[in-house]
Amino acid sequence: MQPDGFAEIENTVRAVLRDVLGISADRAAAFNAGTPLFGALPELDSLAVAGVLTELEDRLGILIEDDEVDGEMLESFGALTEFAASKALK
Hints:
single chain, mainly alpha, globular
């Protein structure tokens, strides 16, 4: 069972990926927890990662420290959503 507010975080992560990466709403809507991100989406290069993280900070009102950013966090849609929820739903 996900905590209260998790669905909103998931929708925000989906919207950020859609907006920053310039992908279609249908494509973003098809993402599930296991959807691979970094290394699997050609749109998600290292420059785009910075944009995604900055946009998540702005939209969720969180601060992401440099030492928190790693490959595991960006491995899948689920991992990125879990990370964002851990920051936003404290």
